[in-house]
C-alpha cells in the first residue's frame, strides 16, 4: 500500500510540474468557467422564480439548478476523458508500450496517470461553486449525503473512463464511449434544464445515463439538504452501475492491453 501511494504521489508531482509550465492554460480554463457562470447568471434573470413546476423540486430558482448541473457535468466529463487522453498522449509520444509493460500493472498505471487531472478538475469545480455563492446562491447542503453521491458518481465515470481507454488502445483513434456520454450526455442528463421539458421518448434515453441520477441527487442534497435515505433511488442505481462496470472495465482494459502486446500494436497510433 505504501509503495502504491508513493507511486501515485510521483505521478501527481510529475503532472503538476508539467502543468505548472503552462500556467496560462489553467487560468484560461478557470476564466472559461467564469464566463459560463456569468452567461447563466444573466440568462437566469429571464426566468421568473417559481415560474416552472419542473424546478420546484430543486427550490424554484434556475441559477442554482444550472450551476450545479454545469459544474458537475464538466467535472464528470473530465473524469470520463482523462484516461483516454492519458493513453492517447502516451501513444503519440511513443511511451505507451513501456508504460503499460512496467511492474505496476496496466490498470493502476492508467489510474495513477490521471490523478492530477482529477485534482486539478476538483479545484476548478470548487472555484465554480464558490463563484456561485458570490452570485447569491444559497446551498442548504447535506455534506455527508453529497459526498457519498459525489464519490459514487466519480466511480461510475471512472468505470466508463477506463472503458474509454480500452477503446483507444483497441481502435487507436475514435472513442464512441466518450462521444456518447460527453456533450450529448450533458444535454440529455439534465445539466442545463430539467429533463421533464424534453419529449417522453428522449426522456427514456436520459434514464439510461448515469449523469441523470448524479445531478438529480446532487441538486437535492446540495440545495434542499436531502439525506442519503431521501435520495435512495438514484444512489442505488449509481451503486449498481458501479458494481457492474468498475470490475468489467478493468478486465476489458487489461484484455485490450494484452491483445495489443500480442499483436505488437501498442506503439501504433
Question: What report would you give on this structure?
Answer:
- The chain is mostly helical and 269 residues long.
- The chain has one domain.
- The chain contains twelve helices and no strands.
- The radius of gyration is 20 Å and the shape is globular.
Global structural class: mainly alpha
Low-confidence stretches: none
**How many H/I helices?**
12
Shape: globular
For the record, the count of structural domains works out to: 1
What letter string, H or E per element, gives the SSE order? HHHHHHHHHHHH
Q: What share of the residues lie within helices? A: over 70%
Average residue pLDDT: 81
Task: Determine the N-to-C terminus distance.
Answer: 34 Å
Keywords:
single chain; 269 residues; mainly alpha; 0% strand
Short note summarizing the structure:
The protein is mainly alpha-helical and 269 residues long. It has helices at 2-20, 23-44, 62-93, 96-100, 106-112, 115-134, 143-171, 176-181, 183-188, 200-206, 210-223, 232-263.
Task: Break the fold down into its secondary structure elements and pairings.
Blueprint: H1 2-20, H2 23-44, H3 62-93, H4 96-100, H5 106-112, H6 115-134, H7 143-171, H8 176-181, H9 183-188, H10 200-206, H11 210-223, H12 232-263
Helix pairs in contact: 2-3, 2-6, 3-6, 3-7, 3-11, 7-11, 7-12, 11-12
Amino acid at each position: 500500500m505504501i509503495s502504491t501511494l508513493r507511486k501515485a504521489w510521483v505521478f501527481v508531482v510529475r503532472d503538476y510540474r508539467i502543468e505548472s509550465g503552462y500556467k496560462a492554460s489553467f487560468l484560461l480554463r478557470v476564466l472559461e468557467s467564469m464566463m459560463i457562470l456569468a452567461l447563466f447568471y444573466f440568462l437566469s434573470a429571464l426566468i421568473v422564480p417559481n415560474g416552472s413546476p419542473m424546478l420546484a423540486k430543486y427550490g424554484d430558482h434556475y441559477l442554482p439548478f444550472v450551476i450545479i448541473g454545469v459544474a458537475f457535468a464538466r467535472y464528470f466529463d473530465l473524469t470520463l476523458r482523462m484516461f483516454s487522453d492519458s493513453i492517447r498522449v502516451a501513444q503519440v509520444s511513443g511511451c505507451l508500450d513501456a508504460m503499460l509493460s512496467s511492474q505496476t500493472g496496466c490498470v493502476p498505471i492508467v489510474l495513477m496517470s490521471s490523478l492530477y487531472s482529477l485534482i486539478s478538475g476538483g479545484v476548478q469545480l470548487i472555484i465554480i461553486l464558490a463563484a456561485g455563492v458570490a452570485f447569491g446562491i444559497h446551498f442548504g447542503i447535506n455534506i455527508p449525503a453529497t459526498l457519498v453521491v459525489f464519490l459514487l458518481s466519480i466511480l461510475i465515470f471512472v468505470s466508463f473512463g477506463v472503458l474509454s481507454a480500452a477503446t483507444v488502445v483497441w481502435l487507436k483513434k475514435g472513442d464512441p464511449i466518450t462521444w456518447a456520454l460527453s456533450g450529448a450526455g450533458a444535454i440529455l442528463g439534465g445539466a442545463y434544464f430539467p429533463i421533464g421539458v424534453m419529449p417522453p421518448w428522449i426522456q427514456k434515453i436520459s434514464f439510461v445515463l448515469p449523469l441523470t441520477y448524479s445531478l438529480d441527487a446532487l441538486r437535492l442534497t446540495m440545495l434542499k439538504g436531502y439525506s442519503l435515505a431521501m435520495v435512495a433511488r438514484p444512489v442505488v442505481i449509481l451503486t449498481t452501475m458501479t458494481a457492474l462496470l468498475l470490475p468489467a472495465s478493468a478486465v476489458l482494459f487489461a484484455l485490450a492491453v494484452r491483445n495489443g502486446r500480442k499483436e505488437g500494436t501498442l506503439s501504433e497510433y
